[in-house]
Amino acid sequence: MKYALMHENTGKYSVSAQCEAFRVSRSGYYAWRLRWRHPSRRQMEREKLDNLVVQAFEARKGRSGAVGLTLDLDELGHTYDRKTVAASMKRQGLVAKAAKKYKATTDSNHDLPVAPNLLDQDFSADAPNQKWVCDITYLWTGEGWLYLAVVLDLFSRMVVGWAMDKRMKAGLVCDALQMALWRRKMSKV
Fold first, then answer.
1. Domain boundaries, position 5
2. CA-CA distance, 128 to 111, in Å (whole number)?
3. Shared domain check, 178 and 141
4. Beta bridge pairs of residue 161
5. Is residue 108 part of a domain?
6. Burial of 64: CB neighbours in 10 Å, binned 0-12, 13-18, 19+
7. Whether residue 52 sits in one domain with residue 65
8. Residue 189: its pLDDT value, please?
9. Number of domains the chain contains
10. pTM beyond 0.90, yes or no
11. Are 131 and 158 in contact (CB under 8 A)?
12. Mean pLDDT score of the chain, rounded to an integer?
């Protein structure tokens, strides 16, 4: 990195002044320049591998890890060890996306009573606090699934209450509604 910076500023500053500023030897800088102009066979092989790994990674839309990419490269006639492919991925900062697990979140097949649809697809309101709607969604975090309940005022489209929890229980929605009532200075229901 230091040598590359020095090379960029060769016309502005002398090599000896830059070597002193970066605390590197002049011989080290000149040896780097020679290697940079004439890369070794090993460096050229590494660049070739890195290019192949990036192409295979992008072809799989970033979903394959070292094992899958090693198999893909083998099919194309490029035989590499899994650890070599993994090292190339690490060097380039390539991390495979984890496949999302399917999780059923609703059970519509039940005999419980269903609440009436009071809005009947009319999502307009003439004044604040006439119509509120609520929804629950779930978000993936580094610590697992987190459920979010939101209460929205249809007049202003403003979030008037919300609550988060690790578990989806009735208390989650009740807490969001409680916050909405508190924020709008309304009496408890």
1. 1-38
2. 35
3. yes
4. 151
5. no
6. buried
7. yes
8. 53
9. 3
10. no
11. no
12. 87
